[in-house]
Write a structure and sequence with these properties.
The protein contains 25 helices and eight strands. By secondary structure, it is of the alpha/beta class. It has three domains: 90 residues, Four Helix Bundle (Hemerythrin (Met), subunit A) (Up-down Bundle); 193 residues, 3-Layer(aba) Sandwich (Rossmann fold); 232 residues, 434 Repressor (Amino-terminal Domain) (Orthogonal Bundle). The protein has an eight-stranded mixed β-sheet with strand order 3-2-4-1-5-6-7-8, with helices on both faces. The longest helix is centred in the last third of the chain and has 24 residues. InterPro entries: AAA+_ATPase, P-loop_NTPase, Signal_recog_part_SRP54_M_sf, Signal_recog_particl_SRP54_hlx, Signal_recog_particle_SRP54_M, SRP/SRP_N, SRP54, SRP54_euk. Component of the signal recognition particle (SRP) complex, a ribonucleoprotein complex that mediates the cotranslational targeting of secretory and membrane proteins to the endoplasmic reticulum (ER). GO terms for molecular function: 7S RNA binding; endoplasmic reticulum signal peptide binding; GTP binding; GTPase activity. It is found in: Cytoplasm; Endoplasmic reticulum.
Length: 554
């Protein structure tokens, strides 16, 4: 994860609130703020910003901690108040003050985006990621290379565009970047492209010639948005760079790159926010999918281990076909969930960025359980399951053949055929079928309980009342999952343990590090995934399954 070291220190610090059991005095508050300040300074955040954060938190929670405000000290609200104040101030630190919001793309019209930045910041790679992001979401996208200074710039852009199957424009003979930019933008605009991205030359330092060239290109193509690509390894030093570019070409937004392994990333993010330029994306790897939309609140939430339900919901929504999803929900209301349905959900998960990225957005999943790469064991296991389903017939995928019959020679023959076709072992196919049976059981309970049909809301309220009386009921039900299945699904990085975390992986209170997530949001996310708003794990939650998660959290 981005800034994992900083996130770990902040989580450890806030965990002291849970250990304190709600008893937070002035000494503990000072200790927590000192630890947070030290962690931020080590991440190269400006000392003035750190001092401001400490002062603001103290002013917000000081009276509650001292007991001067009786209403604020009721129950365990003090530690939640401190947590909320820290989260809000960290979010504020990464949010431009009085700055305009980022440019919003318009459908059906050419949106010209000019990329600028120093050489070596990852500008050309970021352009490819940017193009990939919008193309995957149905935008007609094109790239223009107006970088005539760096040898190989056009070749790099052309190579990236070819991999992404994105049209590109450039020239090996034309030396005037303004002419290239103007011609490329005009051509793609005439052809009806919606997102036209223009690459420009970078320099090793802030030379006057660089700014003159940028200004000429900007005047010629009149971009709708100018994006400054910034290297996070520069830390606080990027403030001067961002201001210089902002003054020269009216930077509308910022992309921060190389955040995947550098301690100065916190300083870079806070410095950019100080320029009043909104950060729109974070680059954190070499792959085209290592590109995440930036939202200060979501970023802080992930940093502190609360997950990013909002981001995950948006990602799942962006990769799903609304009509297909509606059909799936109708089937699930009847208690139906085929192997093809499971295949489609696995496919959606892969589109989001694989198991690692998916788990990183889920509240309550500890950092050490989240796979560190796109080729992690759990992601590979999902791919293997999909290979097996690719070897199945339509009848098998659509549930017209009962693949769960035991001691049936016909089913055993089918399993052997699927294993041969997918290059796997019959036992692995049996594990896939067992996994499907678990999910099918969940959906069946949901359908029979009426949680997804008419009158489902009233049934959810009844179950919510049971959950409030016995908060450990969910954990008790999760113990009914076959431990051998959990192990075979990939251990701690598995699909099933991911489900456990989604449903509230123990620990602190609502929103606390390692504790229950915002269950109202969780229910929405599960519905986006095609898992509905309820449904207990197999094994007997009485008698309808999982409660309305928003009600449960209250």
């Amino acid at each position: 994860m981005v800034l994992a070291e900083l996130g770990g220190k902040l989580r450890d610090t806030l965990r002291k609130l849970s250990v304190a059991g709600g008893v937070v005095d002035a000494a503990l508050l000072n200790e927590i703020l000192s630890d947070i300040g030290r962690a931020l300074i080590e991440a190269d955040v400006n000392v003035k910003l750190v001092m401001k954060l400490r002062e603001n938190v103290k002013s917000r929670v000081g009276k509650a901690v001292e007991g001067a405000d009786p209403d604020s000290t009721a129950s365990n609200n003090v530690n939640r108040l401190v947590q909320r104040a820290v989260v809000d101030e960290l979010t504020s630190m990464l949010t431009p003050e009085d700055g305009a919001g980022p440019y919003v793309m318009r459908r059906g019209k050419p949106n010209v985006v000019l990329f600028v930045g120093l050489q070596g910041a990852g500008k050309t790679t970021s352009i490819a990621k940017y193009a990939n992001y919008y193309q995957r979401r149905g935008w007609k996208t094109a790239m223009v290379c107006a970088d005539t200074f760096r040898a190989g710039a056009f070749d790099q852009l052309k190579q990236n565009a070819t991999k992404l199957r994105v049209p590109f424009y450039g020239s090996y003979t034309e030396a005037d970047p303004v002419a290239i930019a103007e011609d490329g933008v005009a051509q793609f605009a005439d052809e009806g492209y919606e997102v036209i991205i223009v690459d420009t030359s970078g320099r090793h330092r802030q030379e006057s010639a660089l700014f003159e060239e940028m200004q000429e290109i900007s005047a010629a193509i009149r971009p709708d948005c100018t994006v400054f690509v910034m290297d996070a390894t520069q830390g606080q030093a990027v403030y001067d760079q961002a201001m210089a570019f902002h003054d020269a070409v009216d930077v509308g937004s910022v992309i921060v790159t190389k955040l995947d392994g550098h301690a100065k990333g916190g300083g870079a993010l806070s410095a950019v926010a100080a320029t009043k330029s909104p950060i729109i994306f974070l680059g954190s790897g070499e792959h085209f999918d290592d590109f995440d939309p930036f939202n200060a609140q979501s970023f802080v939430s992930k940093l502190l281990g609360y997950g990013d339900v909002r981001g995950l919901m948006e990602e799942m929504k962006s990769v799903q076909d609304p009509k297909t999803q509606e059909e799936l929900m109708e089937k699930m209301a009847k208690g139906q969930f085929t192997l093809r349905d499971m295949y489609n959900q696995f496919q959606n998960m892969m589109k989001v960025g694989g198991m690692g990225k998916f788990m990183g957005m889920i509240p309550g999943v500890p950092e050490y359980l989240i796979p560190k790469s796109g080729d992690d064991e759990s992601t590979m296991r999902l791919k293997k399951f999909m290979y097996m389903m690719d070897s199945m017939t339509n009848a098998e995928l659509d549930g017209k053949v009962d693949m769960h019959k035991k001691n049936d020679p016909t089913v055993e023959s089918r399993i052997r055929r699927i294993a041969r076709g997918s290059g796997t072992h019959p036992k692995e196919v049996q594990m896939l079928l067992q996994c499907h049976k678990q999910f099918e059981g969940v959906v069946s309970k949901m359908g029979k309980s009426g949680l997804m049909g008419k009158g489902g809301a009233e049934r959810q309220k009844q179950i919510a009342a049971q959950m409030r009386k016995n908060p450990n009921l969910m954990q008790q039900q999760l113990k009914n999952i076959d431990p051998n299945l959990l192990k075979a699904m990939g251990g701690s990085g598995s699909m099933m343990q991911m489900m456990q975390s989604m449903m509230g992986g123990g620990g602190g209170g609502r929103g606390a590090p390692g504790g229950m997530p915002d269950m109202g949001q969780m229910a929405q996310m599960m519905q986006q995934m095609g898992m509905g708003g309820g449904g207990g794990m197999p094994g007997g939650m009485p008698p309808g399954g999982m409660p309305d998660m928003g009600q449960m959290a209250q």
